[in-house]
Structure formats: structure tokens, C-alpha cells
């Protein structure tokens, strides 16, 4: 059995084990170790396991060490800590509070405010799941109290929560940049316009839904207190400042992405203590949550690096490239095929699992056709974003279902999410056909 065949069998084994709900870190490292052992043992044509022990050990340890000591990886704990500390300090939800006050007097206004709040939360936290969980607790009960259609109330937050994948900072962009060796700063900037385009699509859908069926999104009858709009707008300044520091600093060449993360964490702590919304106890709770989340991401990334090294050893990625080349697919045909693959995997796997599993195979294809890897990174993250609300295993849908347990069923959330999925597919098509939307800002660095 040659190495390429072993590699393809290993990939199929990974999919089977993930379908059986085996943790992805153990799957990737375990399959890569066993597969590497077989490759080295069969290299001479006969099975000689004693010749495989040292090379396999070297492959596993060197891959793990190389990933963990990556400078770019250091921004993950910083951005995770930024999101948790900003949440504990009450900063992440203030854009929603301001939008809610300004928009609640129009049909569907609270739903629009929820999506905008998700966008603001995403611009600080970088986590779709955290965004859906936090905003779900705040926005969905408020919309239900006003008499919103449960499908609209829940689906708007489930879809809005996916913006954490695309609007920078984004953990998925960081992982993509590390594994493809592309500029993470440019990836962050490339996600801005596509993220705003997705947000605008969601807002238009909610306004159309409310206009077509006013009973689904009634107006709040309570009058506003004098000066409430201005007070709410002024209270949102810390969130806007943090976003400007991250994006303005990177675009202006003042910071690298890692430096922007570090500066933002310090700034968030200072604002929290100055406004007395952050205490030592709440900051320690945020740091503890960040350590747990970072450890999980690091373990998956390190095991994925082992799997990537194994794929390179087998040459199976080159075999896939040869198959696609022989098929004569044009660039657009390749992008459609890759999109269908990601949409299919998104129905069953989590985003991090999909990205670390597929990149070793799809990046050589895309790079071989001369396509822009920054633009392709935006397409990949958009596809992973869609997977968060795609049945039957849309993570954001189940997060919202858990948050509002008893008030709304998962079936109702999926029924509402279908309309948002249609918007996502339109946005995806636009991003594929018009790459300039993704590359305009990073090309201006």
C-alpha cells in the first residue's frame, strides 16, 4: 500500500470518527500517528515497525512544538481574553443598548438592534458561539416580551451571532492565517466589508419580514425618556473605541494584529476599572474562562498541525490536486465544488474541525490555480459561518435553543433561520463573483 492511499484512508477514517462524536483533537492526532507509523513501516516494501518508531515520534513532537511556539498563535489568548473581559465589564452589549433605544419605535427595530448588537459584540469578542449565547440571553426575551414572532426573535440572534466568524477579530481567521501562512492582519481587514454586507442583508430581511407581517415584529408602545437616545449613544463609546484601535491600528500600520490585541486588552481593563464595571473578582473569572477556551483551541490546533504534517508526508494532497487538474475544472467550478463540500461538512461538524481538516487538501488546489488566498480565506470563513445555522447540527441554533429553553423550540428556530440562510447564500455568491469586496481594504494597507 503506497503512502497516498494511506493518506486518503486516514482522511476517510477521520470523517467516520468525527461522525461518531470522538473529540476532534484526539481524532486528528491519533489518525496521523497511526497513519504515519504505517507509512514509515511500509517504506521498504515490507512491514518493519521498528523502523517507524523514531520518525513518527519526531513527526508528532516537532509538529506540536512548531505550532505551539508560533508567534501568531499568541494573539488567540489575547483576543479571547479581550472578549471575556469586555463582556464582564459590560462593554460588548452597549452597541445593542444604543441601537435598541434608537430603533425600537420602528417595526422590527428591536430585531435590527439585535443583529447590530451581534455585530458590535463580534467586533470585540471574535467568537460566534459566545456572541449567540450572550446576545440570546439579552435580546430574545426582550423581543418575546414585545410579542415578536418566536421564529424571528430567535433566528435573528442565531444568524447575527455568526458575524463573529467574519467581523474581525476572528479566531477562524487566525487559524486560517497560521495554517496557510498568510497575513492575519490582511485577513482581518478583508473580513470587514463582507461582514458588513452580511449584517446589511440580515437587517434588510428583518425589515422586509416586519413590513410584510407587522404582527411578527410589533413596535414597543412605551415612550422613551427625554435624553435616552443620546445617553445610550454616548454609553457605547468604549466598544467603538476598541474597534477603532484594532482596525485603525492594523490598517494604519501602527500595530500588528498581535500588538493590537494586547493594547486592546489593556485598554479594556483600564476602562472597566475606571467605570467601576470591572472588579478583581470579575476580571479573574474572565481570565479563567479565557484560559479554558484557549487551551481547547491550542490542543485542536496542535493536533491539526500533526495531521497536516502527516498529509504532507503521504502526498495525498498532491494526488487530489492531480485529480482536479485532470478533471479540467475552471476556477469558478472549483469554487462551487469547494463551497458544496464546506456546506455539506457544516451540517455535521464544528467550524474549527472543518477548517483544520480541509485546508491541507483545498489550499494546494486554490493556490495551484493562482487564486488569492486572502480572498479565499474570506470565502472559507463565510462558509463556516453558514454552517453555524445549517440544520441538522447548527451550533448557534442549539445555543439559542438552550438559552431560551422552554420558550422556543429548536424546530421553530430552524424554521426562522431558513430565510437568513437564503441571504447568506446570496452574499456568498456575491463574494465569490466579486473578489474586490474582500480585497479592497487589505490592498490599501
From TrEMBL:
Gene Ontology cellular-component terms listed: plasma membrane
Keyword Cell inner membrane attached: yes
Main location as per UniProt: membrane
Family, per entry: Belongs to the TRAP transporter large permease family.
Keyword Cell membrane set for record: yes
Complex and partners: The complex comprises the extracytoplasmic solute receptor protein and the two transmembrane proteins.
UniProt-recorded Gene Ontology molecular function terms: transmembrane transporter activity
Swiss-Prot/TrEMBL keywords: Cell inner membrane, Cell membrane, Membrane, Transmembrane, Transmembrane helix, Transport
Transmembrane segments: 68-87, 152-176, 188-210, 231-254, 297-324, 336-366, 413-441
Membrane topology field: Multi-pass membrane protein
Protein name from the UniProt record: TRAP transporter large permease protein
Known function: Part of the tripartite ATP-independent periplasmic (TRAP) transport system.
